[in-house]
Design goal:
10 helices; 3-stranded parallel β-sheet; Rossmann fold; binds nicotinamide-adenine-dinucleotide; 2 domains; 37% helix; globular; single chain; 5-stranded parallel β-sheet
Length: 306
């Protein structure tokens, strides 16, 4: 175990849950499996993304998803729309892609402009191609521990816990944030009779009373709030496992990209207390892409739905 009192991610290695190394390793396996699929079927697994508008974060995420598809030998297609696209037009495109036998996975990058109902979009995507795992059929099946597409970010977190062979059984997991895409599904997955899982779970949110007291009870903290450095060292019990989902972008003159990313956890002060911790960037974000790729491959191989 390295020096936990150090401030830099490099020297806390050993307790750092390294999304870069872990995702690269899993992507090599995915690439092998994709190659075998392509040889056998004569076509590549195919992910389609729809991007509306040009929000900086969404542009970066979609570009990274497309790039990673190419890296592991998938085909990827991107349909871009201006924010003026109507809901009717967008839903028609989704219906068209649903019918295309060459497409295994379809994702629509969120957030969408206000005049487009994200619920309608989610429910229009064929659940058999819903590799983001947001469709109510996939969420319902997940709840019942049936084969399904698990939402990509929670799936990535499970893969990270598995990769580090972290036994979660019997632990108290506190999830902060109850969004449909991260916090709520994560709380269900951690409580399921599965490994990782078998936790006693507390799902907290903006209306939770005495949040600090709740978080202090946690053996595992999963923070998905969207507020920079929200979880501070005084909220964290010694030895806790800390998973930081937050991606908070701030403009910066110090980076080439013109912005800097921060997590929901005050990494510098929490890392010395944690037994394991994910950095931002370099943690959950990279594992989310792995979750998406695994779902797309599973769809191509018809492992979940026939
Ligand atoms: P969201 O805005 O939909 O939900 C935020 C949740 O935090 C809400 O349920 C709210 O109740 C809770 N919350 C807000 N203020 C709170 C407070 N003061 N105390 C307690 N709870 C509070 O967010 P989301 O889509 O779940 O995303 C959360 C964060 O995770 C964002 O930073 C987002 O960018 C990031 N994210 C990262 C990935 C990834 O791949 N790493 C994927 C999705 C989202």
């Amino acid at each position: 175990m390295s020096d936990r009192n150090s401030k830099s991610p490099e020297v806390v290695l050993g307790v750092l849950l390294d999304g870069k190394a872990t995702s690269e390793k899993i992507k090599l396996q995915i690439a092998d499996e994709a190659e075998a699929f392509t040889k056998q079927s004569g076509r590549k697994p195919h992910l389609v993304a729809i991007l509306v508008g040009n929000d900086g974060g969404s542009e970066t995420y979609v570009a990274s998803k497309m790039r990673n598809c190419e890296k592991v030998g998938f085909k990827s297609s991107l349909y871009r729309y201006d924010t003026s696209v109507t809901e009717v037009e967008l839903l028609a495109k989704i219906e068209e892609i649903n019918q295309d036998d060459d497409v295994d996975g379809l994702i629509v990058q969120l957030p969408l402009p206000k005049h487009i109902d994200p619920e309608k979009v989610t429910e229009t995507i064929d659940y058999k191609k819903d590799v983001d795992g947001f469709h109510p059929i996939n969420l319902g099946r997940m709840m019942r521990n049936l084969p399904c597409f698990i939402p990509a970010t929670p799936y990535g977190i499970l893969l990270m816990l598995q990769a580090y062979q972290i036994d979660t059984t019997g632990k108290h997991c506190v999830v902060i944030g109850r969004s449909n895409i991260v916090g709520s599904p994560m709380s269900i997955l951690m409580a399921r009779n599965a490994n990782p899982g078998n936790c006693t779970v507390t799902l907290t949110h903006s209306k939770t009373k005495d949040l600090k007291a709740q978080i202090l009870k946690a053996d595992i903290i999963i923070a998905a709030i969207g507020r920079k450095n929200f979880v501070t060292a005084d909220m964290v019990k010694d030895g806790a496992i800390v998973i930081d989902v937050g991606i908070n972008r701030e403009t910066s003159t110090q980076t080439k990209s013109g912005y800097k990313l921060f997590g929901d956890v005050d990494f510098e002060h929490v890392a010395p207390k944690a037994s394991y911790i994910t950095p931002v960037p370099g943690g959950v974000g990279l594992m989310t892409i792995v979750g998406l790729l695994k779902n797309t491959l599973a769809s191509a191989r018809k492992e979940i739905y026939f």
